[in-house]
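ARCHIVE CARD
Drawer: 12
Card no.: 0347
Subject: one protein chain, sequence and derived structure
Cross-reference: see card 0346
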Amino acid sequence: MCVELAQTTWQLPPLDRDQCGPFGDFPRLSDAEKEALWNDYHARRHARVPTTLWTNTRIVLLDPRFNSDGLGFEQVFSDARAMLVAWLRMEYVLRMRHHLFCDRPTNLPERWLAGVSFLNVYEAAALGAPIEYRTNQVPDTRPMLDDDHKHAVFELDIDHPLELALYKRGIELTHAMRKIAARATFFGRPIDVAPYAELGSDGPLTVAMNLRGPAILTDLLRDPDYATCLFDFIVTAGLKRRAAFLEYWNLPEPDEIWFADDSIAMLSNRQYRELVLPHHRTWYDTIDPHHQKRRSMHLCGDATRHFRTIRDELGVESFDTGFPVDFATLRRELGPDVELLGGVEVPKLLDGSPEEVYHRAETILKSGVLEGGRFILRDANNLPPGVPWANLAAMYRAAFDFGQRP
């Protein structure tokens, strides 16, 4: 006998056009038309810039319009049923609301696909940083490597990464979620649960910042040998963890290497080249020694002064940007063949008017960034809960009005 996990009070009516604001008259595309656009984009024959939104479970858990039950991240991170329900509710809300305003599917799937996610704390927390659950915020970690204990992290056994507490919990949650899903439905549809496998990295400087706090920046100047050892440790731990997850679940090697390191926005280009770039190279070249995979990098903040170095030295061909970003300069510096993802800044999406959002998207799309066709319009960066539908409609409408491929 199947158990229905969805509650009738969670069901959402179709969104009224009046709620979409002054730019709500954008074309309503079918899922098939949206899929065709992405296929054309990857084949480099698309006529319009594709639009997407970067989201996670906070759009439900931190939005009282959808979470009236008080479900929180602390429960989600520890309880299999809570993790499963949070993920399914997110997928449902995305299709009923957010995906109306981008080129992602809006029909409910034949089968739901859920999974385990510890958001951005997964790497630092696994290496010992305590998780803090803050009111109306996503979870974060607290630095734990003070001056008297900054070598303590090296005592961790990274040769057996799946025995580290957080990764072990992720695997256990996956198995428990699969048992629940096997005898459950969500809005009448069966549920699959993807394997928990952390295959990317938030980057050595960013994870070091999570573990050590701002003191890591002082270390770069006063104790560079320690900083180098810590970066090596973080990258080695990430590579061992990646290999262990692939082996545990018997997964194939992905065709793309995903990587990030937001904190390099605080470094000069010389500092980046000398102190951090070698560790980035280790990540990419260990996984892809013959440079046969697509290499991408996510960089929040204004790290754009490093992009050309990263392209030339690491062979990265796709950059997911944050803000502030000068797209015109980026396109001129990187050329037409490098893929860029970016768009309207999330503060403007959250608090601006539809007109401001529309004109900001217009400015981006007219900047020259569309040259070569390697651009994806999206929020910059990671959609917060509570963004007005009228603002999302304004950005999406701009994609139709100004996003035609030159």
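Annotation on reverse: The mean pLDDT is 97. The first helix runs from residue 31 to 42.
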